[in-house]
Amino acid sequence: MSRRLLIVEDDPGLQSQMRWCFSEDLEVSVAADRESALAALRRSEPDVITLDLGLPPDAGGAKEGFLLLEEVLRLSPMTKIIVVTGREDKENAVKAIGMGASDFYQKPLDADILTFVVNRAFRLAELERDNRELARQRNGTNIKGIVAASPQMLSICRTLEKVAPTDVTTLITGETGTGKELLARALHDLSHRSEKPFAAINCAAIPENLLESELFGFEKGSFTGATHSKKGKIESANGGTLFLDEIGDMPMPLQAKLLRFLQERMVDRVGSVNPVPVDVRVVCATHRDVQQLIDQETFREDLYYRISEITLDVPALRERDGDALVVAQSLLQSLGKQMDRPNLAFTEDAIKAIKHYPWPGNVREMINKVKRATIMADGKRVTAADLELNCDLEGPESQLNLRQVRENAERAAIVQALQSCSFNMAQASRLLGVTRPTLYNLTDKYRIETSPESSGA
User: Fold this and answer.
1) pLDDT in tens, 247-286
2) Measuring CA to CA, how many Å separate 5 from each of 1, 47, 118, 133, 177?
3) What Å distances lie between residue 130 and 30, 189, 437, CA to CA?
4) Least buried of 119, 258, 338, 453, by fewest C-beta within 10 Å?
């Protein structure tokens, strides 16, 4: 990767001198004012910027330089900025460092010192880049089992890390296969209860007549077959965490008893008259729309408010920007090691298929697909056929055609303007900020009808 430097200096002579200070392996661009510097920043994405604070139209002051410094830090916070000041201008140098500049250099120009300062900034940028890469290789999160790089999922993880040390009752919602139980275990592992039990029960997998005794336990002789007393899941989690999976499927009569426990933290075993105090944190999860269940009167509203002191709504894999490929690559690496097939990699068509496939089964479906591909792949390359992914790869790619995107947006804006102005061309042209002849040319180009009758409005 070539190293990129942007020199922001309004003096042409100093621009040339600074250019010649650096070796040919450095990609150097220059800018003389704030506007051209921002354009160069977007175009070349430099790793390091040398910034002279005295820029036009305030060449004698530092106002323009500070404004540019703020904008660069906002647009590209990882870029290292070296502020160039006059020898007697230490106050501005200190202020710039306080605003976020990484270093400063004082005029007059000394090639050796300037080269040293710039190379130091490049080295710092490289170290930070390597550190970020190592963080990404650790799956992007500090949560065991969670692989994520998308802002949506990282936001969930940050919230979880804040919630974990507390004892608030937490509801985790999301589609099947999104990792709700992993997040519940993370809440336990990151809490002060981590050394205590984590008891999980699936409310949808146990028959209604057995679920109560599984949760609350029972006394000997309380029903036929109860030959001994038994603790329920709630008691077995004493001091730790109780995870109620698929709580949306819990029967209504049991919901009332669970609500009572959450309010009083006392367990009534089946057949017992002596409540047992229990200290437990409760985490619930469901793939169902709880609000809809409340409207259908199959879930108690008061129980919902009790279990949702904090709610984590886990996005589906298709809603997590870029995570599908990140998760797939992590799975391919781990499954490849398990099956003694290391160094497997996806082909281009497999990468496109992974990105564009909607993943209705989320991560659970992806595990099955990648496991099959790990077994079936010939050689070291995993193809879309190995993954058994059949999806349209042309549609999404066409969205990357900038000309087509621009034309679609232009056409939509013209149609909207015409409709809002009742197809009055003069008003529409003023609304769009173009002349009437230009608007007529555009309607001809895009074959847009200019009357309500012909357009079907």
Assistant:
1) 999 999 899 999 999 999 988 888 777 888 999 999 999 9
2) 13, 6, 9, 22, 46
3) 27, 28, 55
4) 453
Q: Crossing angle for the helix pair 323-338 and 362-376, nearest 10 degrees?
A: 50
Give the residue among 324, 306, 331, 362 at the shortest CA–CA distance from 180: 362
- Which residue from 169, 206, 223, 175 is spatially nearest to 191, judged by alpha carbons? 169
Place of tokens 């066409």: 398
The enclosing H or E element of 85 equals: strand 80-85
- Cα 210 to Cα 32, 86, 153, 215, 246, distances in angstroms: 77, 81, 36, 9, 16
Q: Return d(Cα 31, Cα 39) in angstroms, integer.
A: 9
Q: Which secondary-structure segment (H or E) carries 173?
A: strand 170-173
Tokens of 256: 């009332």
Alpha-carbon distance of 211 to 260, in angstroms, equals 16
Please choose, from the candidates 365, 357, 350, 359, the residue with its C-alpha nearest in 3D space to the C-alpha of residue 392.
357
What is the band of 300 on the pLDDT scale with cuts at 50, 70, 90?
very high
Please provide the DSSP assignment of 373-431 as one string.
HHHH--TTEE-HHHHT----SHHHHHTT-HHHHHHHHHHHHHHHHHHHTTT-HHHHHHH
> Which run of H or of E encompasses 202?
strand 198-202
Q: What is the pLDDT of residues 84-122, one digit of tens each?
A: 887 667 788 888 888 888 898 888 888 888 889 999 999
CA distance linking residue 152 with residue 156, whole number of Å: 7
Q: Could you tell me which residues are beta bridge partners of residue 276?
A: 267
Kindly give, in sequence order, each residue whose CB lies less than 8 Å from that of residue 339, ignoring residues fewer than 6 positions away. Answer: 374, 375
- Note whether 69 and 62 are within 8 A (CB): no
- Taking the CB of residue 124, how many other CB atoms lie within 10 A of it? 15
Backbone angles phi, psi at 53, to 5 degrees: -65, -25
Under a CB-based contact definition with an 8 Å cutoff, are residues 419 and 404 in contact?
Answer: no
As given in the structure block, the two tokens for residue 109 are 């120009």
Question: Which residues, 6+ apart, have CB-to-CB distance to 1 below 8 Å?
Answer: none
Element (H, E) at 198: strand 198-202
What are residue 48's phi and psi, to 5 degrees? Answer: -135, 145
Nearest to 426 by CA among 456, 452, 453, 450: 450
Angle at which helices 402-420 and 436-445 pack, to 10 degrees? Answer: 120
Rounded distance between C-alpha atoms, residue 424 and residue 418, angstroms: 7
